[in-house]
Amino acid sequence: MVKRIIPDQCCGALVDIQEFFLSQVGNRLVRSRIEANMTNLARLLGYFRIPIVVTLERPVYYKGALPKGLKKQLDDGARFFEKNCFDLTKEPKIRACFTRLKKKQVIVAGCETEVCVLQSCLGLLDLGYEVYVVEDLLFSSSRNVDSAIARMKAEGAVFLTYKTLYYELIEAVEGGRHTERMLEAFGPFPDDLPDCAA
Length: 198
Hints:
The protein is α/β, with parallel strands linked by helices and about 200 residues long. It has one domain: Rossmann fold. The chain is about 45% helix and about 20% strand.
């Protein structure tokens, strides 16, 4: 059976996008691209009214909060959680939140690819969710994360790009962008929202 993303069946998971991790990725240009891409993902999911679960690794006073631009973009519907475990599903409050959302698909982005993202994807898969990982919206302090990506794929996570997600969400609405159906359901599509990651 072909797996397709269905907007009203999915939620987002933004994993540990914090100062401590962002400071390890290299120069300011790389960091600003990551922040812009994450903000655009939040805008895209927000347009389709897809709920977002945001995690922050403890201790937050040391690891830092979300970048201001990203936090500002997340609407009141986003759920924020601090976590001690690498696997977000091992935190009872986070697991309960996913259960309450009653969604079967989870779109994942964040860091670190081979630690918290990997462990969280394995946890979500183990709970029976369809997991879609936005590959160009993952980051890590490590240079080689190929084995982590291979493991997630082998366990059933579906990898896609931001651009693929963008168009798949639009295509999921009958008739696509700028149609009466889409306007009725979600309002005008933001013309300034880029269709691919920077």
